[in-house]
Amino acid sequence: MVLDFLPYKVAAQPRKKIGWIRYITFVLSLIFVSALFLAKVGNIERIMFWAFIIGNIAYYGIGIALAFALKDNRAFCKYVCPITVFLKPMSYFSLIRIKCDKGKCVGCGKCKRVCPMDVDVTDNARSRKNGTECILCMECVRNCPKEAL
């Protein structure tokens, strides 16, 4: 959440098609951890501690650099974060979702403009644009002038 203090609450430009990087990050992380366990490395706690420290430094460094380069606070989450490999399939079937009341919605588009993850919350379908990336920040709900969400 530290990246939320950067100046780009909403992406300044359309989303890039580089989300495949997260799968490479995931595979590299899995290989690293698997290698430690399969090699039965001694002092694994110490190695994992330093991996945690270095990982956090890398997260903030890459996150801040991407945020400024792409003018988007959530660039790391959208393109690099390996956690989304697990979260995307689970959120597709999530019971907690933001739904749009089409009867109240006037189509002003304010919810789309304030969403930090570029989710189309006016579409209630499971296959909505970037629907599995919703972080439930509720900015769309707070900013809806007709309380349609």
How would you describe the overall organization of this protein?
The protein is an all-alpha fold and 149 residues long. The chain folds into two domains: 1-82, no CATH class; 88-149, Alpha-Beta Plaits. Helices cover 46% and strands 0% of the residues. The protein is elongated, with a radius of gyration of 18 Å. The model has no long low-confidence stretch (mean pLDDT 84).
Q: Which terms summarize this structure?
A:
149 residues, mainly alpha, Alpha-Beta Plaits, 2 domains, 6 helices
**Number of E strands:** 0
Structural class: mainly alpha
Order of helices and strands: HHHHHH
The helix tally amounts to 6
- Estimate the mean pLDDT confidence: 84
**Poorly predicted ranges (pLDDT <50, ≥5 residues)?**
none
Q: How many domains?
A: 2
- The geometry reads as elongated
Share of residues in helices: 40-55%
Ends distance: 24 Å
Beta-strand content:
under 5%
Biggest sheet features? none
Write the layout of secondary structure elements.
Elements (H helix, E strand, L loop, with lengths): L20 H18 L5 H27 L4 H5 L4 H9 L17 H5 L24 H5 L6
Produce a short descriptive summary:
This protein is an all-alpha fold and 149 residues long. Helices cover 46% and strands 0% of the residues.
